[in-house]
Amino acid sequence: METQAEKVYVAIGTDRQDGFGTLEWALKNWSSHSISIVILYAANNANKDYVYTPFGKLPASSVSDEKLKVLRKIEEGEIDKLLSKYIAFCGKVKAEFLKIEKYDEPIQKVMVELIWRLRITKLVMGITFMKSSSCKSRSAISGSFYVFRQKPDFCGLFIICGGKLVFLREENNEEFIEDDQGVMVAKVRERPTFKGWLGKMFAESATHEKNPGTSPSSSTSNDSPYQWENYVQEIENYFEQLLSSNADEEDPEMEDDILQTSPPEPDMPENMSAAEKTRALNNKICKVHEVIHLKRKEAMANVERHARAEWAICLCTRRAEELEARINEEMANRVDLSKELDTAKEELYEIQSEVEENKNKLNSILELQRELSNKLQSSSLAKSRAEAQVEKAVTKRADMVREIEELRRQRDVLQRRIEFCREKDAIGMATRSSGLGFNYKEFTAEEIRAATDDFSERLRLKSAGDWTNVYKGRINHTTVAIKLYDSVNVLSQEAFQSKVKLLSHIRHPHLISVIGFCSEPKCIILEYMHNGCLRDALFSAQRSSKRGSRGLNWHARIRIAAEVCSGLGFLHLAQPKAIVHGNLNPSKILLDCNLVAKIHGFRLDLCYNESDVLSDMRAFGNLLLQLLTGRNWAGLVEEAIVMDHEALIGVLDEMAGDWPLELAVELAGIAMRCLSTDEGPATVMREIDKVRKKADDLVAGGECEVAIDGGVDMQDSSNVPSVFLCPIFQDVMKNPHVAADGFSYELVAIEEWLGTGHDTSPMTNLKLSHKLLTPNHTLRSLIHDWHSKRSIPLE
Fold first, then answer.
1. Cβ of 794: how many Cβ atoms within 10 Å?
2. Letter string b/e over residues 32-48, b meaning 16 or more CB atoms within 10 A of that residue's CB
3. Of these four, 363, 435, 567, 741, which has the most CB atoms within 10 Å of its CB?
4. Dihedral angle over CA of 21, 23, 28, 32, nearest 10
């Protein structure tokens, strides 16, 4: 792939010899590199006011437009020919030219802007480029120094003089040029300009009025009174002559530069003869005489120009004084006119204010008219709408009356059902109260299969644990838990009968009660605990807290601890020999619908010793720490108790609410004693009862706020209206439907009841007239409102 040639910009003026020399240097300097040449040519803006004719340089205004166009085309043609020769001189190196035209600023500023715009990295500039670009610019060397100082760092500037590279230097506020040997070849000297000289003449005009000096019209100015009109044409001619001579005159600084850039003449060789030295000296003397002669002529011309300039300055000064007097008079008149104008403006402003005020009043009246019209229209529309709304209200009232009557009828039906359910609950409570003895019932296999829907997977609560499966079922309209044993791998018939008999004799409010059993298949029917195990209440509540559920509050946890301690103490103090649980943990403690704790899963063998009892007490101590922290591992509490009370506050379970610090410390102390000492069950029971009594007193006295239990998806059936409970599932209904018997059931429950071949009512045991089910939207709405008030999400 070919590399792109680097561009070298060469700035060349109208001096052909200097231009070719500059191009030749650039081509030789980068002969070993792949480059392309861009020739920069700047048109002379000063030449726009003049044209070159066979008669010399004339002002452009003195030539007709047609001739001016022809002369401009000739000039452009000459420039194009010159640029073509420059391009041809480059030979095989790719070359192009870029014209800089119509610029108002000095050429050195234009060059700096061009460097920034084109990102020029290499710029070769001839020493005469600045001079040939504009006669109004500073000298060539001064312009070169300006570009050198203002250029960006990425641009390399190369100044060429006479085909050789020179270097710009600044020292002691002086600017000079050196060659590659360090020899100074040119120096910039500050000289007075024509503008400064003319200002000086104006400053001396007062002295010149007394002694005007010699001028072509001096006799006239002395013999006749001063009149500017007599000298207007002569002054204008003199001014045009100054402009013409100024444009033709070479810049004196440039002449000094060129003279200083010419190399000094070499000394005469020592081997020259006396005659040759004499001739050389004579030639030099002749040249000096010629220069002196020219300088004398220039001095005479300067004296004449000086006298004429003083004459012109004298006339201009007088004219300036006249104009100043007129201007002062005009300014005085202008002040008077300004005052009159201000007065007229004030009057005009007052008139405009009145007009504007009248317009505003008129607009206000029109706006009021439109507003009244809109209000009238709106009133008409509102009247028609009100009449329509009255008609709708009358119709709606009649509908509401009918709906009220219907709701009253439904209320009466619901009240009858509520009374029926209350009677049913009272009968159930009486039945359960009468069955608190040691009696238990043996159920048939058909009853067990009907209760569990033939051991349906939907009703299975637990599986694979100690060779048992636990199912949820209903027997005699009561929800029970059925623990099914593997008859092959676990117990013999005799062992099973002994276990049932022993369990039926263990009765305590905080131990799971046995309702009955079935010999084949081997299963034990236990009371059903609606709120599951304590482990789910403690640890699952934290996982479900993001869904808005609440965990057990601190008061409930203290009560549960006391209830567990009571049940465990009953087992340990049993006669004739203590019963040991052997695996006490939160999963072995179940909560009923009222969050009452009951223990299950204790061992029934009689091979116990004192160490087993102490093991149960240590497990109870660990359970207390779990109730305090809500964590499965409570080692942090042991460290916190050793440290201080503030550390204990940091590890308490936030889901329980604000723990009373005194009770938390006492409870943690009991736990630590259970873990570290041989604390007996009787002592622990007394201490736990004291803590519970203090907690009850705090809650009763209102000293501590307690959040309502019911988190962790628990339901307190004592607070649930009985009409919301499904008669089959004994749970709050989610989709209640009315059957032919007039009772509402959970849709899934009644469909299963009817799907298993039943054609009688689950409540009255009477035959149903039909099997159609109707959604009970009113009851569903009441259940939804009840859930909303309890902040329990309805799934």
1. 11
2. eeebebbbbbbbbbebe
3. 567
4. 180
Question: How many alpha carbons lie under 13 Å from residue 4 in its C-beta half-sphere?
Answer: 3
Tokens 């009560």 belong to which residue?
559
Do the beta carbons of residue 684 and residue 674 sit within 8 Å?
A: yes
Is residue 56 a contact partner of residue 114, using CB atoms and an 8 Å limit?
no
d(CA 652, CA 554): 10
Q: What is the CATH number of domain 441-528?
A: 3.30.200.20
Q: Which helix (H) or strand (E) holds 58?
A: strand 56-59
Half-sphere exposure of 430 (CA within 13 A, CB side): 6
Could you give the 3-state DSSP secondary structure of residue 394? helix
- DSSP H or E stretch at residue 518: strand 514-518
- Identify whether the C-beta of residue 312 lies closer than 8 Å to the C-beta of residue 235: yes
Helix (H, G, I), strand (E, B) or coil at 131: helix
What are the boundaries of each domain within the chain? 6-192, 308-423, 441-528, 546-703, 723-790
Query: How does pLDDT run across 597-612, given as a tens digit for each residue?
Result: 999 887 776 666 778 8
* Contact (CB, 8 A) for 739 and 703: no
- Cα-Cα-Cα-Cα dihedral sign, residues 663, 664, 668, 674: positive
310 Ramachandran zone, left/alpha/beta (phi>0; psi -120 to 50)? alpha
pLDDT band, residue 641 (cuts 50/70/90): low
Torsion of CA 276, 277, 282, 287, to 10 degrees: 100
161: how many CB neighbours lie within 10 A of its CB?
23
**Residues 336-385 pLDDT 10s:** 999 999 999 999 999 999 999 999 999 999 999 999 999 999 999 999 99
Burial class from Cβ neighbours inside 10 Å (0-12, 13-18, 19+) for residue 50 reads buried
Whole-number Cα distances in Å, 122 to 29, 164, 314, 715, 789: 12, 17, 54, 90, 86
- Paired with 468 in beta bridges are 465, 485
Q: What is the pLDDT of residues 710-748, one digit of tens each?
A: 444 444 444 577 778 888 877 788 899 999 888 888 898
Give phi and psi for 60, each to the nearest 5: -65, -25
Q: How many CB atoms lie within 10 A of CB 582?
A: 15
β-strand pairing of 56-59 with 523-527: unpaired
Helix axes 661-676, 554-572, angle to 10 degrees: 30
What fold characterizes domain 546-703? Transferase(Phosphotransferase); domain 1 (1.10.510)
Question: Taking Cα atoms as reference points, which of 695, 557, 540 lies closest to residue 624?
Answer: 557
H or E segment at 221? helix 218-223
What is the C-alpha separation between 233 and 227, in angstroms, rounded?
A: 12
Look up residue 183 and give its DSSP letter.
Answer: -
Q: Dihedrals φ, ψ of 703, to 5°? A: -75, -25
Whether the Cβ atoms of residue 39 and residue 86 lie closer than 8 Å to each other: yes
Number of Cβ within a 10 Å radius of residue 655: 21
Cα-based angle 194, 200, 202 (whole degrees, multiple of 5): 105
Nearest CA to 628 among 594, 597, 663, 592? 663
**Averaged pLDDT score across all residues of the chain:** 77
Distance between CA atoms of 128 and 160, rounded to whole angstroms? Answer: 9
Longest Cα–Cα distance of the chain, Å, equals: 167
Distance of CA 89 to the CA centre of its chain: 62
Residue of 105 and 456 predicted with greater confidence: 456
Q: How far apart are CA 737 and CA 745, in angstroms?
A: 5
Can you read off the two tokens belonging to residue 346? 């004030």
For the segment(s) 6-192, the CATH number from 3.40.50.300, 3.10.350.10, 3.20.20.80, 3.40.50.620 is 3.40.50.620
Instruction: Specify the pTM.
Output: 0.41
With 0-12 / 13-18 / 19 or more C-beta atoms within 10 angstroms meaning exposed / middle / buried, residue 66 is exposed
Q: Could you tell me the two tokens for 478?
A: 């009561």
